[in-house]
Design goal:
With about 270 residues, the chain is an alpha+beta fold. It is built from 10 helices and 15 strands.
Length: about 270
């Protein structure tokens, strides 16, 4: 399974009502979780399957990892890409990434991922897809798929800022610092030495509807750099390029590390029926 398969599956759905469907499977507590399950089903090809046991079996064949809300990513396709899924309230809302900065790619060496994620298969780096949906009144109103390398800067850009702040914090005199993956941890704040202070970064990024507005405003779209697009199987490309309701065109996108440069990319808009 890959992103093109997921786009085809979503394009072929008659309706994108999510909460009622997932309540029928007893699998959802909130709309963010409903969107997450919808994306999983789009990649697994189980959008119309109401048999929970069958769905779980297909998931186990489709994904090598299904994660949690506290550590990226949300999922990894077996021998394929990683997924990060975000629900927003409107096309103007930013994405809250909390303590994890935007991912250009996903690396197995990252301290932010879990041991289970690192060991789910043999891997060093993964392309990561940001799946961002606007969900209101049980309906997916808009949905965007973009690859991290087309959306976020390289890790050293974020690490430089993070490390500069961390070094500055740790240079404060007369404060006892402890080991942490966060920006800082101050130990023994009080006279008893029993209170500590965690200093965390709270990252955020503008959503793809805003970032790629210069290309085209569309409620349902995917942007894939050309190099990545032509790694997809020919069969998947042939189907998506000839599917009713899907439009594909070449475009130029800004390089996240240097906006003066552009990258060749493919814009896919879907559900244009």
């Amino acid at each position: 399974m890959n992103l093109l398969n997921a786009i085809i599956n979503i394009n072929n759905q008659k309706t994108l009502t999510v909460k009622d469907f997932y309540k029928s499977r007893n699998r959802v507590n909130n709309m963010g979780e409903a969107l997450e399950l919808f994306i999983y089903d789009a990649f697994a090809g189980t959008l119309d399957n109401t048999n929970a046991q069958q769905v779980n079996e297909i998931y186990s064949r489709t994904f090598s990892y299904l994660g949690n809300q506290n550590n990226p990513p949300d999922a990894i396709i077996k021998n394929g890409d990683a997924l990060e899924i975000k629900k927003i309230e409107s096309k103007g809302s930013s994405l809250a990434l909390n303590s994890s900065y935007p991912k250009h790619k996903l690396y197995s060496s990252s301290p932010m991922i879990t041991k289970a994620c690192k060991n789910c298969e043999q891997w060093i780096e993964k392309d990561i897809i940001y799946s961002v949906g606007v969900v209101n009144d049980n309906q997916i109103k808009s949905l965007a798929f973009v690859y991290g390398e087309d959306y976020a800067a390289s890790p050293e850009i974020y690490e430089r800022i993070k490390n500069t702040i961390k070094t500055g914090i740790e240079s404060i005199a007369d404060v006892e610092f402890g080991e942490t993956n966060e920006l800082g941890r101050v130990n023994r704040v009080d006279p008893l030495g029993i209170t500590y202070l965690r200093i965390r970064g709270m990252w955020g990024i503008e959503n793809p509807f805003t970032v790629f507005k210069y290309i085209k405003e569309a409620p349902f779209f995917a942007i894939i750099n050309s190099e990545k697009y032509y790694t997809f199987p020919l069969n998947s490309r042939n189907i998506v390029e000839n599917c009713n309701g899907i439009r594909i065109k070449s475009c130029k996108i800004k390089n996240p590390d240097n906006p003066a440069l552009t990258k060749d990319a493919v814009l896919i808009t879907f559900r244009e029926k």
